[in-house]
Design a protein that fits this description.
About 25% of the residues lie in helices and about 25% in strands. It has seven helices and ten strands. The structure holds S-adenosylmethionine (SAM). S-adenosylmethionine binds next to helix 5, strand 8 and strand 10.
């Protein structure tokens, strides 16, 4: 039966891929994902198509149209599809086709594990694709750690917080490239962030 699988692939390393995700891809006629997501399935013989920020809408519509034509398609989402992932945009255009969401380990969960933060004691905030908004200021001083997906740049977020008057010595953590061989987990101060160059693949915690 034709279906659109929205597949969470976890933080990126094969070790965190679920068997359910692998089975969904293996049973699909086509798999669509970012290059780093597709890399995880380079041993699976299935039609593979690349998805990027520039062709996101076109590829999501393409995926839905293939399902309407009777095919099964796996759409890969890094981490979990429901947290700043592809679930939200897909729901806007999928109409009545059959969907199955396969959860993945979010970068936020992975960050909480690395830093040993029970995440029921934390606030989760995503700025990804939204820009920095003053809303974040409301949670940062409530005594709980805030786990943040920055809007691509950790350094910009640190600069913003410093300009808003946050203590330069405030304890923060940056988890970069979680699960990859060059993963970095650093617990530093807010001002120390400016001494480093981080990639877009970061989760930040403000304690
Ligand atoms: C489009 S959002 C996807 C979030 C994803 N759905 C999740 O649950 O982790 C992409 C952002 O997630 C974070 N991210 C994804 N994978 C990561 C990793 N392996 N290490 C650190 N951050 C990661 C980064 O902030 C990146 O810019």
């Amino acid at each position: 039966m034709s279906k659109l699988y929205i597949v969470g692939i976890g933080p990126g390393s094969r070790e965190y891929l679920t068997l359910k995700a692998i089975k969904a891809v293996e049973s699909s006629d086509m798999v669509i994902g970012s290059p780093r997501a597709l890399d995880l399935f380079d041993d699976v013989e299935v039609d593979q198509r690349e998805l990027g920020t520039e062709n996101m809408k076109t590829m999501l519509e393409f995926a839905v149209s293939r399902v309407r034509e009777g095919k099964s398609v796996s759409l890969l989402s890094t981490g979990d599809p429901g947290f700043s992932g592809v679930l939200k945009p897909v729901l806007k255009l999928s109409g009545d086709i059959e969907l199955e969401v396969i959860p993945g380990i979010s970068s936020v969960q992975m960050c909480a594990s690395k830093l040993q933060i029970p995440w029921d004691d934390a606030d989760l905030v995503t700025l990804h694709g939204k820009g920095i908004s003053n809303d974040i200021l409301k949670v940062l001083d409530n005594g709980r750690p805030t786990i943040i997906l920055p809007d691509f740049k950790v350094n910009e977020l640190a600069n913003y917080l410093l300009k808003e008057g946050f203590d330069p010595g405030r304890r923060v953590a940056v988890c970069e490239k979680l699960s990859y061989s060059d993963e970095k987990v650093m617990t530093i101060t807010l001002k120390d962030i400016l001494d480093y160059e981080f990639s877009y693949m970061c989760v930040m915690v403000v304690y």
